[in-house]
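pipeline stage [seq->struct] | target=Helix-turn-helix protein | organism=Saccharothrix saharensis | residues=374
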Amino acid sequence: MLILARESRGLKQDDVAKAMKALDGPTSKVSQAYVSRAESGRLAVTGERLELYARALAYPVDLLVMSETEVGAGPGLVHHRKKQAAAAPDLRRIHAVLNLSRIQLRGLLDGAPRRVDLSLPRLEVDDYFTGADAARKVRADWGLPSGPLGSVIGVVESTGGLVLRRALVAPVPLDSGNESVPVDAVSVCTPGEDPLVLLNDGTPGDRDRFTTAHELGHMVMHTLPHPQQEKQANQFAAEFLMPAEDIRRDFAGTVDLRCLLELKAQWGVSMWALLRRAHTLGELSDWQYRTLAVEMTSLGYRTSEPGRLNPEQPSAVRSVIDQYLGEGHEVDDLARRARLEPAEFTTLYLGDRSSAATGESEHPVPASAVEVSI
């Protein structure tokens, strides 16, 4: 647990040693070697030294003394969007944050009644049953209406999945067509636990819904690693959000920047995603696709597109917490259950959501909220 706690803070062993020495005073004998021995289990950390350790990491002692049995089997197969471009230290921190989020939610939600309206299927994809086929089947089995969906996060939460926003990595420019960044999100389906998705806080709404649908694709299709899993999840997300049968008619006329911007407001995905979709469906030639891609790049749309989309917000976990608070539970009590300090619990789970879409709206990205002039 000491390693997990340290990595969740993005710290090295030497960083922890320096923080402990600063708290302990000039005569402190804490060193990097001490931290290494403590993490390896060769040295027991108890009493005042344990309190010091907890203060340096800004976690309660209760978290640091959790046994492996209490922590559980770990997150298992973790899906990233997108792992290849992320630095190893970032991935270690993200994995630690994911694992600690599991622990927090287990403490918070244990015994809490939750409504599950949709059954999460498990589908195997191959050369004959693609990610797009899986998306069509899921939409049909769940009875989702044709055309643009409402809240994608709401759909995930309806399956019993848990969604949180966390600071994973700093957003970077859009990758033309594939909408890839170092890590837009991370998800895991640990056996015996609810699926969990962490969305990168601060990722533009331009790619927010596509990212959530991408992680849903992983939940449906990838209980085991697959060499094509990122491509398959992108196929799933594209068809889930922009069904070919429905969106083709929107590409029937001239597909230009104005068209893409207007469709962005309608479908709740980025102009890049729409451009890629039109090309994949054969509604744009290779030349037309390249021409528009060059034009969008020259206008700076890789870093910032026109037409702001409000990110959807998770509501399932917050709803349970609000219920607890309404029943008279104190924030300090809930923080103890989550094994967090009250201030951090408040930041992570009770943050102000007033400026963002709630995720409960039937139309989370209305056209009136999008600037459609170029």
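stage status: PASS
auto-comment: The beta strands are 78-81, 162-166, 185-188, 196-200. The longest strand covers residues 162-166.
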